[in-house]
Amino acid sequence: MSPGRPNAVEAAVLAANQSFYDAFEAGDLDGIDAVWERSDRAVCTHPGWGTLRGWDAVRASFEAILRGGTPGQFIVTAADVDVTDDVAWVTCDENLWSEDAVGTVAALNVLVRDPLDRRWRLVAHHGSTVHAHAPDE
Amino acid sequence: MSPGRPNAVEAAVLAANQSFYDAFEAGDLDGIDAVWERSDRAVCTHPGWGTLRGWDAVRASFEAILRGGTPGQFIVTAADVDVTDDVAWVTCDENLWSEDAVGTVAALNVLVRDPLDRRWRLVAHHGSTVHAHAPDE
Q1: What is the pTM assigned to this prediction?
Q2: What b/e readout covers A21-47, taking b as 16+ CB neighbours within 10 angstroms?
Q3: Best A49, A77, A122, A137 residue to mutate vs chain B (most B CBs within 10 Å)
């Protein structure tokens, strides 16, 4: 990210990134649809999962997860963004807060700018649980 | 990736991606130095770790890991790449094989093309262990 406050493009990327978590938190599948690039190249790795490839598989995973209820609050911290041309990548911490669990998921998200409507959309998401202690493996 | 065989640009990205794993497997810090963009925006998330930001922190992590010995064989499968202008992102499975452990790490890597030497270099790496069963969280 440029030093200090994000510039206008960086702010637009961060807003799209945040809207993904807002939609997930709200159990809003339409919102998830809206922020993802619904293409064959969409890829998603949930914590502990193998990588899902293609929008159909990615979308089905969110549908299945939300069928079990919303995962709780996503409090996003440490969001940082880099932009090169029409591609951006964001690192952030997803701090989960619910009745069942608290924990932090580190995420790397890739977003691309749609050539038609110029909106930023997620094309790759990888989240993994941050362990308090290094795992044995 | 374009259908069928990768085109020349995709092949160059995949070769850079592979050279990272080859260097890691060989315990070759010079090779790791060569394939990373050694900049403040370099980011790296090892399985179970929080995200490391900046080349100094990223480099130190590889140095520390390799001080404990090489992690074993990295057999990279399911590598897929997308390229937009001078940014590429790769998903792949890192299949680890050593005396101590076997397992699969799913990875999302972002590479950028250096404007001067036109070589592709890693700027973001996120790996997470694929669990045989969904974790409780």
Answers
A1: 0.93
A2: bbbbbeebeebbeebbbeeebbbbbbb
A3: A137
